[in-house]
Known about the structure:
Elements: H1 2-23, H2 29-33, H3 55-58, E1 66-73, E2 76-80, H4 83-91, H5 93-96, H6 105-109, E3 117-124, E4 127-131, H7 134-140, H8 144-158
Antiparallel strand pairs: 1-2, 3-4
Amino acid sequence: MLSIFKGTKSLAAAAVIVAFTATGCGIIPTQADSVITSVNVSDSKLAIKGYDPVAYFTESKAVQGVSAHTAQYQGATYLFSSASNKAMFEGNPAKYAPQYGGYCAFGVSKEKKFDIDPEAFAVVDGKLYLNLNKKVQSRWVLNTEELISDANEYWAVIADTPAESL
Length: 166
């Protein structure tokens, strides 16, 4: 009977190693870093679809960034329309990065992670909120305070959950 379990223990140990390796649970650190679930990014880890997060504050509009001005924050790459906007971001990235990792603010208030339209945005109390599209944005602005409160509560729970799992 003991010889049956001897092979099973080796098989179980191999399965645990494969599981840890595949999930990035510490055996290969770079694997854990390769998946970003708390920031809405493209396959190339580009945030806000390449729009300049600082411009929402300084110009009150969505402005496409350029590849000549980039910065990294929370594993995502942000583009900027100017070197000065990049410098402002690097001085205080938490101030300029969108709330809820750049996922749709309305969606997060409903415990979901939806993509965004960079043109559907609002700066409220010095924070950038993005939404799925302008139709959703028009619903979000009707009840901003309550939806932000709900989203803040839910974000603490769903931030690290992959969007497709919600």
